[in-house]
Amino acid sequence: MYYKLNTLWKELSLDLIFTLFLQNIMVYVTRKVHFNGAHKLFNPNWTEEQNDEVFGKCANKNWHGHNFDLYVTVKGVPNPDTGFVMDLKKLKVILEDKVVSKLDHKNFNLDVDFLKDVMPSIENIVIKIWEQIEHELPQGANLHCIKLYETENQFVEYYG
Ligand SMILES: [Zn+2]
């Protein structure tokens, strides 16, 4: 066993050892974006009274709006050439393209393709946002957390 390990270590280049060492150094980077939107929480299988009881003002039939703040955190090992986990300008472009342009100034119940047939609670919205962007990230950068603030005092987090 000792002999085998000793041989293995001799065969590993310094670069590879350094890479293996770096693999434990995970850094988390976050981009914040903002959008405004309207929704209502309403279960069509329930009576109006049941909806009012469960969702209160959020069931208002003519919608209501929020100013949403979205925090998207990506994890990875900093690239030795750039020092970046990923280029945050690219993350901004992905978020604008896949999320903000689809949600900003929209009615989440009616206008958004990726929220079709989804109850647009912030819990469900973060799950759908995750699906929108998880495959858009460059190699080596992985989605870690999506946090969505509906109000200053109310937010959800999703870790995939
Ligand atoms: Zn609401």
Give a quick set of tags describing it.
160 residues, alpha+beta, Tetrahydropterin Synthase, Chain A, 5-stranded mixed sheet, 34% helix, elongated, binds zinc ion
Structure report:
- The chain has 160 residues and is of the alpha+beta class.
- The protein has a single domain, classed as Tetrahydropterin Synthase, Chain A (2-Layer Sandwich), CATH 3.30.479.
- Helices cover 34% and strands 27% of the residues.
- It has 5 helices and 5 strands, in the order H-H-E-H-E-H-E-H-E-E.
- The protein has helices at residues 2-11, 14-22, 48-55, 88-103, 122-133, and strands at 27-39, 64-76, 106-107, 142-151, 154-158.
- A 5-stranded mixed beta sheet has the order 3-1-2-4-5.
- A hairpin with a 2-residue loop joins strand 4 (142-151) and strand 5.
- The model has no long low-confidence stretch (mean pLDDT 91).
- The protein binds zinc ion.
- Zinc ion (ZN) binds at residues 39, 58, 64, 66.
